[in-house]
Amino acid sequence: MTVEVGAWFQIGRRSQTAAGGGLVVGAEPAGGAALFPLVRFLKGSLFPEFSEKMRAMPQTGKSIHVTFGAASSSVETKPSRITLHLAMPWLAGPKEECILSLSDGDIRESESFSLLENSEYVAGVAILDSTRSLQEESQAIYRSLLKCCEGFHLYRCWNYVPTINVVEDHLERYRQFNAGRWLAFNEAFGQQMSTRLCAASAVGCCGDRVVVAFLAGKHTVQHLENPHQTPAHRYPLQYGPKAPAFARASLLNNPESRTAWLSGTASIRGSDSLGTGNLKEQLAVTWENIRTMQEVITQTWRVADAKPRTFKVYLRHPENYIPTRDFLQNQGVDLNSAIFLHSDICRSELDVEIEGVFEQQNQLLIPMSQ
Asked: What DSSP character marks residue 160?
């Protein structure tokens, strides 16, 4: 039932209070009164829940969760739940997320992924045991990921790469990862590759095991770019032999549950990093990029305004938590719906990266009550 603050999904819970028993989405901040409204949909729902009270409620169906702060990354599989224990230090906000929750679904193991799926959605998590080069491993895991998504549209990917900025064999590990990912997408889609790239993040984690998670579904999705940034898949060679394979945002084109996933966003204009060594400037440029994408999403949906539901903030230096928190609060961000994590950023010269989720607001039906 718990859903990732900022990104992740619950499908198929029926309201006991909404007229007609439609599917609902709601949220409650940790330890506090219910502030967010319920939204009734016919098919799917986003359902961020953060309070211990909500977590303690009886749960039905099956789900994939992620918890932060593990000593080492591992996947625990039970009959009704898959849990990714992620080796990434937690700083503030919810400590647990849910990638996907289904009232009717199957948990199974593929060649590489632990999967939860039904006829409409599939999500999975995988941990790589590095016996080959990182490029070979990332190519293999993305081959497997794309095979798991056959017949589905890829909505979102999360990539966690230990020592992401370390140079090995004359090439930074992030660039090695990008090369393998690019080769897998190109192998699967050829000249159509750029149209199949979804929202994604790639940041560092602790330990020595690469972690990949994804979410896909049957509803069509639209991938968007930032007009002030070079599309990542067109970055020049100075950023590696193969460009990063992702879009700036992905929009779920289900009018009953309009959701947009914002990729990991940093202080980049065109393809250049801005504000090296200056957190204040990096935060300002990053937020300008987020606001730009909010406008693009709003225009694409043709609604009054696409509202942010959640954010996840990655910080290279934990001492930057307080100034980053204060900056976001000054921008109107609800800190109850933000997760702060200690993580290396994919570009070694940058110190902060922010991802999030936007939603259409014109479907609010009834307020949540205690």
From this structure: E
Q: Give the C-alpha separation, 148 to 143, whole Å.
A: 9
Contact (Cβ atoms closer than 8 angstroms) between residue 49 and residue 27:
yes
The token duo for 305 is 């305004």
Instruction: Give pairs for 296-302: CB < 8 Å, separation 24+.
Output: 296/224, 296/225, 296/226, 296/227, 296/249, 297/224, 297/249, 297/251, 297/260, 297/358, 300/222, 300/224, 300/251, 301/251, 301/258, 301/260, 301/360
Question: In this structure, are residues 18 and 363 in contact, taking their beta carbons and an 8 Å threshold?
Answer: no
If 0-12 CB within 10 Å is exposed, 13-18 middle and 19+ buried, where does residue 37 land?
middle
Count CA within 13 A, CB hemisphere, residue 116: 29
**What confidence tens digit (pLDDT) does each residue in 1-10 have?**
233 323 444 4
The tens digit of pLDDT for each residue in 52-86 reads: 433 444 456 999 999 999 999 999 999 999 999 99
Contact 39, 45 (CB under 8 A): yes
Amino acid at 102: L
Residue type, 318: P
Element (H, E) at 176: helix 173-189
